[in-house]
Amino acid sequence: MHKQFNSYIDQSGMTLVEILVSLVILGLVLTTIFPLVTDSLQVTNLANSITSRLLGDQENIEIVAVTKDGAYLEDGTFIPESYYPVVLEDGTTWVPGMTIKKADLIRFLAANLGSEYELFEVYEGYTEEEAQLTIEDRSFTQDSEFVMVDKDGNEIDVDISVSDGQSLTFSLPIDTARLTNLHSPYHITITTDDTEISSMLLVHLPRAVIVNSNGNLLISSSSQPGNWINKTSTISNSYQVNKICFVGNSEQTARYIAVGNGGSIYLWENGEQVFRKLSLSSGIGTTDLNDILATDDGLLVVGDDGLILHSLDGSTWEVRRSKSNNQPDLNAIAYFTDKEEYVCVGESGIILISSDAEVWTQLSVSGYPQLSSNAIHNKKAVLFSETGDHLMTPSAGMSGDNSRTIFMVVKPTAPPANIHLLTMGSPNKHLTLRTDSSGNLSVETGSISHTSSFTLAQDAAYIISCRYDQSTDILGLSVNGSGLQEFNNIQIDTDGDSIYLGNNLLTNYNDPLYFEGAMAEVFVFNRALSSTRSSRSWPSSGSYASEMDVANKYLSLKYGITLQDSSISNTYYYGTIRQLNENNWRSNYWPSNDYRNMDQGVLWLNTNDFNLGAEQQVRVWSDNSGANNHATVTALYAAACNDQGDLYAAGYHRHMIRYESDNDLSQDNENLNSQLGPPVQYSLDDMLYVPSLLIGLLNDSLATGETTKGYIAAVNRPGSNYDLKVVSDYRLNDIFYYSDADTVVVVGNSSSIFYSENDGVNWYKDDSVTTSYNLTAICLR
Predict the structure, then answer these.
(1) Is residue 186 a contact partner of residue 151, using CB atoms and an 8 Å limit?
(2) Could you give the CA distance from residue 610 to residue 521 in angstroms, rounded to a whole number?
(3) Would you state the pLDDT for residue 605?
(4) CB crowding 252-275: b at 16 or more within 10 Å, else e
(5) Cβ(687)–Cβ(734) under 8 Å?
(6) Which residues contact 504 (CB under 8 A, 6 or more apart)?
(7) Based on the structure, what is the number of domains in the chain?
(8) Is pLDDT at 374 greater than 60 in this prediction?
(9) Which of 187, 297, 481, 709 is most exposed by smallest CB count within 10 Å?
């Protein structure tokens, strides 16, 4: 019995001590747990309260929660800000920091967004291959229903093909119904039995845009040329587009901005069909806009009459430099990284710089003529140097036949052998006043040279005249009022062409012809002045002065140059025998009333009327006859800068200005004569730097018997010869460099497109465009 009792205790009983110890331990445990249980109940109640409030507001915040980096969907899917533009009901685009309500959303991303097939992206101008898109999913069958709608809910007709249990391929429209970014995003729903899969298609602005002379567009989905698509929408005006640029660091902010003639600025931004013309503020009017530059500080545009505009976003523009009829047109703008300055170039060889795009300073260029107050017998004169200084008129300013009379007052300051004084006409029928290798005054007519017996000397002032009578084909030369030395059977054609002073840009010589010295006055009459003195009987027998006598007498009195023919001083002048002087010579001293206004119908460049101070740079030599045909430095059409401190500006007749490192701006006497021919035929209309090359577009509009030709040429270092890359049968209008793809593209007339895919080293012709439009501007992104 005792043993049985013991067995009971061992199996189911506890001693009193064990019970007491257990109670103590249990108390300690409960003491610890009770506060935790209380806190847990409080947290649970708080969570329930928050959940209730959230559920109450669910209608407003169901879809999207926003952080600074992107948006979360209801199921926790994260959409980076740069990945998907959430479009709101009012047409605006979601940006970080906005709280977007369900009712405001036009399109909702499905809960399964984030897998490998939900989001597709294409660019306008997509190719047939790019139009084929595939969604892989094992639920697809031949009975799967595919629906695509644009952002406005309009259904898009697409072809589909299904591989059961594998994938579905759909084809975007590739005809005139091509999808555009205007109606993007496109929502895709695929329903198979009770399973629904949603996807999204984004269509972005094209990667490349070309505008033609009619305002129509060529677009491409690639920055590599070769698959251009005609866009049926046109720019809604008749003005030519001159330049295009791209701005924006995401597809949401992407936009193309174009500028053109008639004060037109166009904007094509995300969510728009095509370029739209902006309504601009006063101060712009119909001024032609010639170039646009995108910078970190916004956009700059330059135009005619010195106009400069600025914008932060391309939508709103302000005038940074007001236009004026007295200011030269600005043709191009670039950013000079080495100097951290903006550079503008334009007509009359003007170069402006600015560090802030607000205050502009005109640069003085070594190689432009200078003005001296006392270069010829204490009279003002334009100083030309042997570096190639020159001035030219926009045209001859003449009408009628090719009869001409030229007077010039000049003073060579270097040995006058092979110097150039004046050229007018065309390359094949020009008239050039020059000296030969012995310093004898000569005239060239086309390819024929006629040399007189008049020899010029260094540091001596001369009145030089040339008289051509088309009715007799006789040309005569004279120095200081001497009798005319005449040459027979001369034929020239100078009507309508420019006149060149100083450096000869018109004709091609093995050694270029320069003029180093002073030039004070230039007459060019549109007729052969009379050289015969008519007889008179009052107040005594003798003769009246001829028109040639009057001009020689006036210039001799004004500049203190002794005439070789002393009888000129003894002739009488119309209506009076008063002394002829420089102030009354025009009104009273012609043999008949028909010729009283000596400057009528004439180019008269009169240095003495300059209001510039001594030693100032001359860009414009005013025409005092009222013919509005000033002599100017030739126009600059393009500017290019690199990171190594090189600045080039270039323009008409391949006129080039170069800045290297810390040297002054100076003319660059690059020539392509050995490859191209006379400089006058070529205008350097655009250029840019690529990593190792300066690439320029040259156009020849004067080639005899040919249509305009264009050339792409490159120079691999300052001062070296050009390397011809492309010869085109048509004018070349614009060049664009897309550095991300090492691609350079050039467009021109008759749908000419040339491209390089290795930074301008090798070039190819793009024949994918079959239209014959003139292409005026291009931009790649």
Answers:
(1) yes
(2) 11
(3) 87
(4) bebbbbbbbbebbbbbbbbbeebb
(5) no
(6) 390, 420, 423, 432, 434, 512, 513, 514
(7) 4
(8) yes
(9) 297
Strongest mean pLDDT among 103-112, 274-283, 455-464: 455-464
CB 766, CB 758: distance < 8 Å: no
> In this structure, is residue 91 part of a structural domain?
no
Structure tokens at 508: 């091609």
Asked if 589 and 673 sit in the same domain, the reply is no
Confidence of residue 752 (pLDDT cuts 50, 70, 90): very high
Look at phi and psi of residue 653 and say left if phi exceeds 0, alpha if psi is from -120 to 50, else beta. left
What digits encode the pLDDT tens for the residues 675-697? 666 666 678 999 999 988 899 99
pLDDT (tens digit per residue) in 648-661: 888 887 677 777 65
Residue 642 confidence (pLDDT): 84
**Helix or strand holding residue 697 (H, E):** strand 693-700
For residue 667, the model assigns a pLDDT of: 62
Return the DSSP state at 95. Answer: -
Tell me the backbone φ, ψ of residue 414, rounded to 5 degrees. Answer: -135, 165
Percentage above 90 pLDDT, the chain: 40
Same domain, 337 and 227: yes
- pLDDT band at residue 584 under the 50/70/90 scheme: low
Provide the pLDDT for residue 61: 32
User: 691 exposed, middle or buried (CB, 10 Å; 0-12, 13-18, 19+)?
Assistant: exposed
Q: Is residue 326 part of a domain?
A: yes
Q: Give me the chain's average pLDDT, please.
A: 79
Predicted local distance difference test score (pLDDT) of residue 645: 78
Q: Are residues 740 and 771 in the same domain?
A: yes
Tell me the pLDDT band of 477, cut-offs 50, 70 and 90: very high
Amino acid letter, residue 553: K
- pLDDT the model gives residue 343: 94
Claim to verify: residue 682 and residue 719 sit in the same structural domain: yes
126 closest CA partner among 86, 175, 189: 175
| C-alpha Rg value of the chain to the nearest Å | 41
As to burial, measured by CB atoms within 10 angstroms (0-12 exposed, 13-18 middle, 19+ buried), residue 371 is buried
* CB within 8 Å of 674: residues ≥ 6 apart: none
Element (H, E) at 524: strand 517-525
Residue 67 confidence (pLDDT): 47
Q: Are 211 and 111 in contact (CB under 8 A)?
A: no
Structural domain span for residue 27: 2-56
Closest CA to 425 of 475, 499, 491, 477: 499
Per-residue burial over 211-234, b if 16 or more Cβ lie within 10 Å, else e, is bbeebbbbbbbbbbbebbbebeee
CA–CA separation, 241 and 235 (whole Å): 9
Q: For residue 772, which amino acid is it?
A: S
Q: Is residue 373 part of a domain?
A: no
CATH of residue 554: 2.60.120.200
674 and 626, same structural domain? no
How far is the C-alpha of 453 from the C-alpha of 393, rounded, in Å? 30
Q: pLDDT category, 376, cuts 50, 70, 90?
A: very high
61 within some domain: no
| C-alpha count within 13 angstroms, C-beta hemisphere, residue 430 | 25
Q: Is the peptide bond before 539 cis (omega within 30 degrees of 0)?
A: yes
